[in-house]
Amino acid sequence: MKLLLDECLPRRLKNYLPGHECLTVPEAGWAGKKNGELLSLAEKSGFEFFLTLDRGMEYEQDLKGRQITVVLLAAKSSRLADLLPQVPALIAVLSRVRGSHLLRVAY
Fold first, then answer.
1. Which domain holds residue 46?
2. Nearest-5° angle of CA 60, CA 77, CA 9?
3. Distance CA 35, CA 6 (A)
4. Which whole-number Å values give the CA distances from 55 to 1, 15, 52, 93, 102, in the listed order?
5. Among 18, 66, 98, 107, fewest CB within 10 Å belongs to which?
6. Is this structure's pTM higher than 0.70?
7. Count of domains in the chain?
């Protein structure tokens, strides 16, 4: 799977998602882009999933007609230690979901 990690997520999270091609928004050269433009760029570049902590995403973006799945990680902070308990559930979601969805992953 090709995953794009939002700017709000720690870059080191990629190390806990083996077998997936992961880039962060800054690594892709898209730092500072608004969510709508960011999702369009990600789709055009072949990303299948966009991982974020942005709880407003579900209210701000209409995902109808999009080819990317937005995964909203529910954690008390963006610290890696707070995100790691969600990794098993996240990996399960990545293996079974495709297309235009907004999914919440919590532990």
1. 2-105
2. 65
3. 9
4. 23, 24, 8, 18, 11
5. 18
6. yes
7. 1
Tokens 């610290």: give the residue. 79
Report in angstroms the alpha-carbon separations of 9 from 12, 52, 64, 66.
9, 7, 25, 22
At 67 the three-state DSSP class reads coil
- From CA 18, how far away is CA 4, in angstroms rounded? 14
E strand or H helix at 104? strand 101-105
Q: Which residues contact 66 (CB under 8 A, 6 or more apart)?
A: 39, 43, 100
The tens digit of pLDDT for each residue in 19-33 reads 999 999 999 999 999
8-61 residue pLDDT tens: 999 999 999 999 999 999 999 999 998 889 999 999 999 999 999 987 776 777
CA distance 35 to 27: 16
CA distance 99 to 97: 7
